[in-house]
Amino acid sequence: MVLGKVIGTLVASKKEPTLEGVKLLVVRACDVDGNDNPKGAIVIAVDAVGAGVGEVVLYCSGSSARQTQVTQNRPVDATIMAIVDQVTVGDDRRYVKA
What we know:
- This protein has one domain (2-96): CATH 2.40.50.220.
- 0% of the residues lie in helices and 43% in strands.
- The protein has strands at residues 2-10, 24-29, 42-47, 56-61, 78-83, 86-89, 92-96.
- The strands form 2 sheets. A 5-stranded mixed β-barrel has the order 1-2-3-5-4.
- Strand 6 (86-89) and strand 7 (92-96) form a beta hairpin.
């Protein structure tokens, strides 16, 4: 699983029928402070939890991306599985959702 920040949305009017009705978001890898890395990988991820632009999320890729109720048996390679509320490293709270 990877921490990422939602930086945009993707709309595709023509797509594989099994992708009809899924929300696609543009996600860039971020650090534990919630800062997106300008050189970080960008992925298009299916939103399984109702995330929005600007939120820090937890996403997975590969075969794990097809393990949610929303993505089961769909041709996806990345899925947002959680919206992050807080990240703590040791005793240091590094990120708290505003």
